[in-house]
Amino acid sequence: MTPRLLSSGPTMAAVTSPETSPQPRVYFQTTAAGSTEEPETPVRKQGRVTVKYDRKELRKRLNLEEWIIGQLTYLYDCEEESIPELEIDVDELLDMPSDDDRGARVKDLLVDCYKPSEDFVTELLDKIRGMQKLSTPQKK
Questions:
Q1: Which spans in the chain are helix H?
Q2: I need a surface site. Which of 19, 117, 123, 133 has the fewest CB within 10 A?
Q3: Domain spanning 55-128: which CATH class is it, in words?
Q4: What is the pLDDT of residues 113-125, one digit of tens each?
Q5: How far is CA 77 from CA 56, 111, 116, in A?
Q6: Which residues of 12-44 are buried (b: 16+ CB within 10 A; e: fewer)?
Q7: Domain residue ranges in the chain
């Protein structure tokens, strides 16, 4: 028996079956308000949920993140697991009005790094120039 969420609105269940369809489907199942009994035959409305991301931008972002990790392991002279807890948020940097603001933000994050970080900051700013924010997916 599968657990059920008791609510007055529709419930959602993702159903994927390789025999029926190569793409995942989402079915909305409606129940009577306040009803705790399982309906004998559930009413199913089939819907597709598709959101397409710009794969090129995703690949650029992944490559950038891998490069950042490599640079941080060099700057902190440690393994990836031992890098101090810091977050270089590319979307936050892209929201800033100028390269000077971006550079200052990254330098603030690297305040406890004992190696020179100017080259890292300059190259990071070059790499993010022209990138798009990925916080909201692009619909096609």
A1: 55-75, 90-95, 99-109, 118-128
A2: 19
A3: mainly alpha
A4: 889 999 999 999 9
A5: 31, 15, 12
A6: eeeeeeeeeeeeebebeeebeeeeeeeeeeeee
A7: 11-47, 55-128
